[in-house]
Specification:
alpha+beta, Ig-like_fold, 3 helices, transmembrane helix
């Protein structure tokens, strides 16, 4: 038989082991995950809310349904056929009697056509998921919402003061400048942010147009405009040479609706300008007219007639009358001859016709000769 000491040691070991086992039994153990719901179907990702959409726009959206429960289910697609315009079911992978196991997905695709601006559309389709084990069912409501707008939800316009959606500088002289103001208006429902760096001017070839620059703007380094807010940007055209200029002005608005993936909005405007020469041709000076000197006619010298010698009548009583007459005739002839000779000289000096004067002198000489002959004849008869 074992001794008392051996029995005591064995008893002590049993007691210690019992205490250790008891402590382990009452010590708190690690937490255990609660089991998942046996029946659970959810919409994964995007739902049926299309949000604000520009009137006339057609948008298609695919909705994913996930079976996240522990049991397999089946879903009846029949309720999807109750959708009405502006919503239309265009396709689905859900089939009647199809078993959807845990973790599997099915999809449905719906198209929305935005009606008249201001129309709010909302429809709900209830899909029922049946547990294949027969323990129950689960209802999944799928809601479709949309609102039509006159513009896209993120939208703005850029116009000139006359309302034109273009940038036209008209005719501008080289060396001068012309400035056109564009007014930017947020037309959608999303706020937009603008900066001067998001305004880019290019020529028709796509290169930067150096003759058109930003003169000023209301948003400077950056400003956020809320719906229906406006801002301005002034563009200045400074032509350096004559010619037509065409290009584009691109303005970008950054969407500020809280969605970092929201795309920016871009508006591109056509640009036109005509540069004309600012320096005209050098005018030809009008010559100063020199007054034409008036020529003074040199008066023709008047010939001074030489006094004719007085013929002395020959003495004689009875022949005095005839002598006087003859003397008179001789004197007249000499005077006529002398005058004729002087006259011919004078006419020649003035360039007048000389021939009539010569004829006159000849006649005068002939007359004088006849008078002398008669006087001599008369003297001879007296002598006899």
């Amino acid at each position: 038989m074992p001794s008392n000491s051996v029995l005591k040691r064995a008893l002590t070991t049993l007691v210690v082991a019992g205490i250790a086992l008891a402590g382990a039994a009452f010590a708190p153990g690690p937490a255990m995950a609660a089991p998942s719901d046996p029946l659970s179907v959810i919409i994964e990702g995007k739902d049926g809310n299309f949000g604000p959409v520009k009137t006339g726009t057609v948008i298609t959206r695919t909705i994913t349904i996930l079976n996240e429960g522990m049991d397999s289910v089946t879903i009846d697609p029949a309720p999807l056929g109750t959708l009405t315009a502006p919503f239309v079911l265009t396709g689905t992978t859900i089939k009647a009697g199809d078993v959807i196991a845990t973790g599997q997905r099915r999809t449905l695709t719906v198209q929305y056509t935005a009606p008249a601006a201001g129309t709010v559309s909302s429809q709900t389709v209830a899909l029922t998921a049946l547990d294949v084990s027969g323990i129950g069912s689960f209802t999944l409501p799928v809601r479709f919402d949309a609102q039509s707008l006159t513009t896209d939800r993120a939208s703005f316009t850029a116009t000139q003061p006359d309302g034109r959606a273009a940038l036209a500088f008209g005719s501008v002289k080289t060396g001068s400048q012309a400035t056109v103001r564009l007014t930017i208006t947020v037309a959608g429902i999303d706020p937009l942010r603008f900066t001067e760096g998001d305004v880019v001017v290019r020529d028709s070839a796509g290169a930067a147009l150096s003759t058109v620059k930003i003169a000023s703007s209301s948003f400077g380094a950056g400003a956020t405009l809320m719906p229906r807010d406006t801002g301005t940007v002034d563009l200045r055209f400074s032509p350096t040479k004559a010619g037509s200029v065409t290009g584009t002005v691109t303005i970008v608005g950054r969407v500020m609706n809280g969605n970092p993936e929201a795309p920016s909005v871009t508006v591109i405007l056509p640009l036109t300008a005509e540069a004309v020469s600012g320096v005209g041709p050098t005018p030809t000076p009008t010559p100063t007219r020199t007054p034409t000197p008036t020529s003074t006619a040199t008066p023709n010298p008047t010939a001074t007639p030489t006094p004719s010698a007085t013929a002395t009548a020959a003495p004689g009583g009875s022949g005095t009358g005839g002598g006087a007459s003859g003397s008179g005739g001789a004197g007249a002839g000499e005077a006529a001859g002398t005058a004729g000779t002087r006259g011919a000289g004078s006419l020649a000096q003035t360039g007048a016709e000389v021939i009539p004067g010569v004829a006159f002198v000849a006649l005068a000489l002939l007359g004088g000769t006849l008078a002398v002959v008669r006087v001599r004849q008369a003297g001879r008869r007296q002598a006899r």
